[in-house]
Amino acid sequence: MTGKAALVEFLLRETGLRVVSLARVPSRSHTVNYRAAIGDGRFVLVKLASPDYRLGIVDHPLVARDLFPGRRFMFGDRRVFCLEWKNGRAETLASLSEKAVERFVSTYGSFRAALGEGRIHGDLNCNNVLFADGEVTAFLDLEMVRPGHPCEDWVRYALTGAEHLPVFAWLRRRRVAKNLARIAAATGYPSSEWRAAIDGFDAAKTARKRRRGRLSWFTRINLAWRRRYYERLKRDIA
Asked: Phi and psi dihedrals of 68, rounded to 5?
């Protein structure tokens, strides 16, 4: 027995969860996620990860609970986590109303307080926050929580959401700058903090590409174009 059938049998044997259906959930992380319908009408997020994967759990109502804290399940060479299912869908900043943005900022503030002083999500993007009717319903994938400034989270959210916008760079930059201006108005952080966060985002992207080895000519051109794009974006939000 292999694949989903084997996983369903494993979950029943090891956790007691009687899964009636299992559907793959798209994920940008290095985990494989499934939405499992349980016999009692509930849903569970089943996450398959590497053995050393660190699950980010924070005591906050919008963060999914580990249903079996302290227990370790191994399905072949993958570690299995069973989490509380959270409903909602991804949204870009451009798709949110002014009121929804204000509520998002307020909700993020309470979430960040739960993380601990001086800590941020670290991978806040439009795939790691769920919304329903303009309200945040979940913060996902907390394994990259780290010390940092909130502007770093917001810049990442705005820039990763830009992939859903038109391909023309000038229009994309104007949209990103407009969205960051909406967040800046709601948070009150000075422009210097936003510029520093954009520099940090650029540096992290560049370092990640350099770690992969020698840069091709195409990658060098792409990095130069990206740096120019970020410099113009910093001027746009000044």
From this structure: -135, 65
Residue showing tokens 């963060």: 63
Per-residue pLDDT tens for 64-120?
999 999 899 999 999 999 999 999 999 888 889 999 999 999 999 999 999 998 999
Q: What is the CATH number of the domain that holds 213?
A: 1.10.510
Is residue 1 predicted with pLDDT exceeding 50? no
| DSSP track, 160-212 | HHGGGS-S-HHHHHHHHHHHHHHHHHHH---HHHHHHHHHHHHHHHHHHHHHT
Asked whether the beta carbons of 191 and 236 are under 8 A apart, the reply is no
User: Burial, 141: exposed, middle or buried (Cβ in 10 Å; 0-12, 13-18, 19+)?
Assistant: buried
User: How far apart are the C-alpha atoms of 83 and 73, rounded to whole Å?
Assistant: 13
Q: Is 65 helix (H, G, I), strand (E, B) or coil?
A: coil
Looking at 84, 118, 139, the residue that finishes a domain is 84
CA distance readout (Å), 109 to 19, 54, 61, 112, 122 = 36, 24, 13, 5, 14
For residue 167, pLDDT over 60 is answered with no
Paired tokens of 167: 């391909």
Residues 137 and 97 placed together within one structural domain of the fold: yes
Same domain membership, residue 122 and residue 174: yes
Query: 120: domain range?
Result: 93-236
Count the Cβ atoms, other than its own, within 10 Å of residue 87.
9
